[in-house]
Amino acid sequence: MPTIAPSLIRDLVEAAASVAAQVELSALLRSTVQTGMDLTGAKHGALGVLGEHGALMDFVHVGLDPGVARQIGHLPRATGLLGTITRTDTAVRIDDIGDHEDSVGFPDGHPDMTSFIGVPVRVGERVFGNLYLTDKAGGFTEDDEVIVEFLAVTAGTAISTLRMQERLRRAALHEDRERIARDLHDSIIQDLFAVGLGLQASMAKVDNDPTAVHQQLDTSIDKLDETIASLRRYIFDLRPPVWARPSLPSELARLLEELAAPHRVAVGLDFDCPPDIPETPVADDLFAVIKESVSNALRHGEPSTVDVRVVCEGEVVRASISDDGTGFDTDQESEGLGLDNMAERVERTLGSLFIDSVPGRGTVVHVAFPLQPSQSK
Q1: I want to staple 346 with a disulfide (CB 3.0 to 4.6 A). Which of 79, 203, 321, 353 is the partner?
Q2: What CA–CA distance (Å, rounded) separates 368 from 346?
Q3: Three-point CA angle 101, 106, 109, nearest 5°
């Protein structure tokens, strides 16, 4: 077991606390990668998120020039050395990637990388993904491996905590709905029912005592006014403050839950944009494309998992919709997939759309929309 300097242990503990403090999954993943780079001196880092069958569903990278990443154009295939970590569920540390027996080289446009360390990130008993670091001057040490494995454990625990918090929030929302229903029944609806009974009783007096009927009507009108005022106050009190009103992330989460329900497929959402960005109409176009893409995957792709990732980068909002389904041949005409509608939205807004699909290996839809200048500041 290597001996780690006390100062490095202190840095590691502080870094782990920073990772664990993240409240959004995308920020947590990026923080994990950046922390690993800072602690080891790696030039590049990434965290690959795995689907049910080991396919790479998302890839959070740090250190790679955005222009180079766009030129590569697709997520790694999780084969070669990256696939080895998934297959063996163990850490890999090597001075030169090209020397490893499972290395298959780099895709066109990808920078060459040498030293490498990769460790699995587990959430409970399941491997959630793999943390990769590359290009440390002089190569990675045994100390580095211990540090990165500790960081992976911290990230896995933090991810598990975020998932538990999300489940608790959903449970709280369900309880809140039941409370609202009870309160409405116990107050507003019973008041209205009492007014109705009073009016019904007055009907028998229409011919014999019109004065009493008028008084009953006046009383009922006053009671209705009071009930309406109470209902307005109730609705106003229920209305969330500005910061808590439905936003694009919550609307997307609700949409994905509705789409997934009939198919019994896990659909994940990772949203990494500042509050209230993007705004309408960009949010509407993004929402529509995500809805079409996820619907296509669920109805035609027979996937076991679908993952949606949205990130704001400078003047652009990007989304990737990944599934591990049957895929299709992008060179063939694909009717019924709504691709023309998506392309039209993207073209109208000067955005970009790229569909990466291989029969038998799933599909990834990449879409980008420019943000309005006022939104990106």
Answers
A1: 353
A2: 8
A3: 170
Nearest alpha-carbon partner for 316 in 35, 25, 69 = 69
* 3-state class percentages of the chain: helix first, strand second, coil last, to nearest 5: 50, 20, 30
Q: Rounded CA gap, 34 and 298, in Å? A: 34
- The letter for the amino acid at 216 is Q
Whether the per-residue pLDDT at 154 is higher than 50: the answer is: yes
Q: Are residues 258 and 206 in the same domain?
A: no
Residues 22-68: pLDDT tens digits?
777 878 888 899 999 999 999 999 998 887 666 667 778 888 877 77
The two tokens of residue 321 are 């919709």
Q: Is the peptide bond before 281 cis (omega within 30 degrees of 0)?
A: yes
Instruction: Tell me the H-state helices in the chain.
Output: 6-20, 25-40, 66-72, 80-88, 142-184, 190-203, 210-238, 248-260, 282-300, 339-348
376 occurs within a structural domain:
no
Quote the domain boundaries for residue 220: 169-243
> CA 20, CA 153: separation in Å to the nearest integer?
11
Nearest residue to 164 via CA among 355, 345, 346, 25 = 25
Q: Which residues contact 343 (CB under 8 A, 6 or more apart)?
A: 353
Using alpha carbons, list the distances in angstroms from residue 279 to 35, 37, 287, 311, 377. Answer: 31, 34, 11, 14, 13
Q: Are 230 and 274 within one domain?
A: no
**Spatial contact of 114 and 138, defined as CB atoms under 8 Å apart:** no
C-alpha 376/C-alpha 41 separation (Å) is 31
